[in-house]
């Protein structure tokens, strides 16, 4: 059996790409240093996979920022607003155009916004959304795919397997920027360019090409189904002699099984971790000669593979189609897992023995092949590890299980409905029209990060650290007062990541030192590992929030991360339903919310940016998920009195399909990302007549560009066309942790000025 890998983490085991990219963006290094760092990462990745015995080693899975953006550049799908980036500065070339599309561009007399970004299916990875026009033309623009194949060929001494986003999935990932056409109608313009790319790869010596088509595992309309049939028929006809693999993942093929199996390709990859039940149907319909790549090793989580379970699936497939038509593989790209468990030296050895990172998952693929060939020692070692986890006393706490079992519907209800709460809060707070606030965090400077590092190394005492954090917090408060923000935040200088911080203070979590996973671009996160029952042993945020409130007469907002987001942005235990784990977290957050209220905090934000992300990929499964996810949020928020205002924050979400459920969360204020979409996302709230208050983001924090006051006023006017002005807050899209202070200060000053202009405009109108 061939051993197949779909993709590998690309930021480097020690985040080398992040550091190289940020140095380049800051103008501290040149292109050659950036390209050298990228080459080193790719070569190291290929060597690791070759040493692990992987037969089909991927290339073009590497990206400087995002694989969808790579595809747009490869195909020449470049919005017209970016063309001056090359003409205005003779030093700019393809990589500068690429980063301009991802991050925006504000120099050389240009001020260009970044392209829209959204979540990659139900992961915490973000991609840059392609923009299509009715007369969209496609052509080979970037040569990166061919350059990377050549580098892989020279490094490995054999042809790597090129990875491309499939043509249908690429179109479905995009967005129509004009009325009067459907993006899927572009398939006949797009396929000839894919054919040119595949032919050119073959001429370079390519033997296998992987075309990622995860939309095959989603609900498809007839047009999309027809596009699949057309695209792959044309590709196969034009690319004889090239082995083509269609890769699906994150869900079962369900009713699309016959379609996927009918495509004229050499191999089909299916995800048997997320959807093991699909194998029987696939085997009953598989045509002669089609190779099946079985995704039996979890590419989305960090738990050790249960070899007995995987071997059962592999043996069933071998019995049906034969050994030579079965590949063993991870369920999806290993992009979503950390690099190497061997780098972790501080994890409890008992728990570490249950875990596997990307490098170890490659080894699991190899070991499954060796066990099939008769290596019983490897099977027995795996059985021992799996059994030890099932009975470990580290995992189970009866008092936590009993508290979750005792949850009632009343635990999810506020005292009074929103309309009554709003009047009470307006009377108590006396905020102006278009009140201003931020989403929580302020820039984490190098000084702040060094403080945290010194504390961890023992170079600072806790008292010295707290003194410095107190100074930073007070400085941030004074600046907010000076600029005129209405509801302040303490800045979160004592926090690392918005999930990691809470996980470190909750029981049932563990943390890694090098478990970095890419979220977008150079943004990496280190997800906590939920290994056992979750509870809150002590206050988590009360100390610093209370300190901040004591240093201002203005309202200070308490900042918490919601239960669904903590779940989604962690590596979650897989031995109980996710809903149960979420309710454990919800009760812990509820205790913190009540403690903040008792400490005198009247505005509390419970961030839930991942609630839309967690939505199942199939609509048939939505209702069950939304029921427990919304209830978990309500449980976390419902312990306070009417006067306490509960905010929530969501970003990069399509809300239309779930707007009723967002309303059911019963938050007093929701803040959302809307600046990149030019307030388009608000239309769902307006159509639904959303009952509560809304803060549509007027400032895109994922780009270094500084928006003008006039630009933000225009966005507020668009918002007020859709919503009652009296229900609109003014805020950035998201937290400001990743930004620099100079740009942050100017942008927030402009934002406050925009709110004042909006008050002038709308104070004369009925609210």
UniProtKB/TrEMBL annotation:
Enzyme Commission number(s): 2.1.1.14
GO molecular function: 5-methyltetrahydropteroyltriglutamate-homocysteine S-methyltransferase activity; zinc ion binding
InterPro entries associated with the record: Cbl-indep_Met_Synth_N, Cobalamin-indep_Met_synthase, Met_Synth_C/arc, UROD/MetE-like_sf
Cofactor(s) this protein cannot do without: Zn(2+)
Binding-site residues, L-methionine: 439-441, 492, 607
Positions contributing to Zn(2+) binding: 649, 651, 673, 734
Coiled coil: none
Keywords from the named record: Amino-acid biosynthesis, Metal-binding, Methionine biosynthesis, Methyltransferase, Repeat, Transferase, Zinc
List of residues binding Zn(2+) 1: 649, 651, 664, 673, 734
Domain (Cobalamin-independent methionine synthase MetE N-terminal): residue spans on this chain: 4-318
Pathway the protein acts in: Amino-acid biosynthesis; L-methionine biosynthesis via de novo pathway; L-methionine from L-homocysteine (MetE route): step 1/1
Amino-acid positions noted as binding 5-methyltetrahydropteroyltri-L-glutamate in the UniProt annotation, renumbered to this chain: 15-18, 119, 124, 523-524, 569, 613
Catalytic reactions on record: 5-methyltetrahydropteroyltri-L-glutamate + L-homocysteine = tetrahydropteroyltri-L-glutamate + L-methionine
Binding positions (L-homocysteine): 439-441, 492, 607
Single GO BP term: methylation
Cofactor: binding details: Binds 2 Zn(2+) ions per subunit. Binds 1 zinc ion per subunit.
Top enzyme class: transferase
Active-site residues, record numbering mapped to chain: 702
Disulfide bond among keywords: no
Domain Cobalamin-independent methionine synthase MetE C-terminal/archaeal: from-to ranges: 434-756
NCBIfam families, per database record: met_syn_B12ind, PRK05222.1
Function of the protein: Catalyzes the transfer of a methyl group from 5-methyltetrahydrofolate to homocysteine resulting in methionine formation.
Family statement drawn from the similarity comment of this UniProt entry: Belongs to the vitamin-B12 independent methionine synthase family.
Protein name as catalogued: 5-methyltetrahydropteroyltriglutamate--homocysteine methyltransferase
Naturally occurring in which organism (per UniProt): Mucilaginibacter corticis
């Amino acid at each position: 059996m061939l051993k197949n890998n779909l993709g590998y983490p690309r930021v480097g085991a020690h985040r080398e790409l992040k550091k190289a990219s940020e140095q380049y963006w800051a103008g501290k290094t040149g292109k050659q240093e950036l390209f050298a760092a990228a080459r080193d990462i790719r070569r190291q990745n290929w060597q690791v996979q070759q040493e692990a015995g992987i037969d089909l080693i991927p290339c073009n899975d590497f990206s400087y920022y995002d694989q969808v953006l790579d595809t747009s550049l490869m195909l020449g799908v470049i919005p017209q607003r970016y063309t001056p980036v090359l003409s205005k500065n003779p030093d700019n070339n393809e990589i500068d155009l690429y980063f301009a599309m991802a991050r925006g561009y504000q120099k050389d007399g240009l001020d260009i916004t970044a392209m829209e970004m959204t979540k990659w299916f139900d992961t915490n990875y973000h991609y840059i959304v392609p923009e299509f026009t009715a007369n969209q033309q496609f052509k080979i623009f970037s040569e990166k795919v061919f350059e990377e194949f050549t580098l892989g060929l020279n490094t490995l001494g054999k042809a790597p397997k090129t990875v491309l986003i499939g043509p249908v999935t690429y179109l479905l990932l995009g967005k129509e920027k004009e009325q009067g056409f459907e993006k899927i109608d572009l398939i006949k313009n797009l396929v000839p360019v894919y054919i040119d790319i595949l032919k050119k790869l073959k001429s370079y010596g390519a033997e296998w090409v992987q075309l990622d088509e995860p939309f095959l595992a989603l609900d498809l309309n007839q047009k999309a189904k027809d596009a699949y049939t057309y695209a792959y028929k044309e590709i196969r006809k034009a690319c004889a002699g090239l082995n083509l693999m269609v890769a699906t993942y994150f869900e079962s093929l369900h009713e699309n099984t016959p379609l996927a199996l009918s495509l004229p390709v050499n191999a089909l990859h299916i995800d048997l971790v997320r959807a093991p039940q699909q194998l029987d149907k696939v085997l009953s319909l598989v045509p002669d000669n089609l190779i099946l790549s079985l995704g039996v090793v979890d590419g989305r989580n960090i738990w050790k593979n249960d070899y007995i379970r995987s071997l059962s699936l592999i043996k069933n497939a071998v019995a049906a189609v034969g050994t030579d038509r079965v590949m063993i593989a991870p369920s999806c790209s290993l992009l979503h897992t950390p690099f190497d468990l061997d780098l972790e030296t501080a994890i409890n050895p008992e728990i570490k023995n249950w875990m596997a990172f990307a490098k170890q998952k490659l080894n699991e693929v190899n070991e499954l092949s060796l066990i099939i060939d008769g290596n019983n020692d490897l099977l027995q070692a795996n059985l021992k590890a799996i059994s030890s986890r099932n009975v470990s006393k580290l995992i189970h706490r009866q008092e936590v299980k009993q508290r979750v079992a005792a949850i009632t519907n009343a635990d999810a209800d506020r005292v009074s409905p929103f309309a009554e709460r709003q009047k009470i809060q307006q009377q108590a707070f006396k905020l102006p029209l278009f009140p201003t606030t931020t989403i929580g965090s302020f820039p984490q400077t190098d000084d702040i990060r060094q403080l945290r590092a010194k504390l961890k190394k023992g170079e600072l005492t806790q008292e010295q650290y707290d003194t410095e954090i107190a100074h930073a917090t007070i400085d941030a408060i004074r600046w907010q007062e000076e600029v005129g923000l209405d509801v302040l935040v303490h800045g979160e200088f004592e926090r690392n990541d918005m999930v990691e911080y809470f996980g470190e203070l909750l029981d049932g979590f563990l943390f890694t030192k090098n478990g970095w996973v890419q979220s977008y671009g150079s943004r990496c996160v280190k997800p906590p590992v939920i290994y056992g029952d979750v509870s809150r042993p002590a206050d988590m945020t009360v100390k610093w929030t209370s300190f901040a409130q004591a240093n201002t007469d203005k309202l200070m907002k308490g900042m918490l991360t919601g239960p669904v987001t903590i779940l989604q942005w962690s590596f979650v235990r897989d031995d109980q339903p996710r809903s149960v784990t979420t309710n454990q977290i919800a009760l812990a957050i509820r205790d913190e919310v009540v403690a903040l209220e008792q400490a005198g905090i009247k505005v509390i934000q419970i961030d839930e940016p991942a609630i839309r992300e967690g939505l199942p990929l199939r609509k048939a499964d939505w209702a069950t998920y939304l029921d427990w996810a919304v209830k978990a949020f309500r449980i976390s928020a419902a312990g306070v009195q009417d006067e306490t205002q509960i905010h929530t924050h969501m970003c990069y979400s399509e809300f239309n399909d779930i707007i009723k459920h967002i309303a059911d969360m019963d938050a007093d204020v929701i803040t959302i990302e809307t600046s990149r979409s030019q307030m388009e996302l608000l239309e769902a709230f307006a159509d639904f007549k959303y009952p509560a208050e809304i803060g549509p983001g007027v400032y895109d924090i994922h780009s270094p560009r500084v928006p003008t006051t006039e630009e933000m006023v225009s966005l507020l006017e668009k918002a007020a066309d859709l919503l009652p002005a009296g229900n609109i807050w003014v805020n950035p899209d998201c937290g400001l942790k990743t930004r620099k202070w100079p740009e942050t200060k100017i942008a927030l000053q402009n934002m406050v000025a925009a709110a004042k202009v909006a008050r002038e405009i709308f104070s004369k109108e009925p609210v």
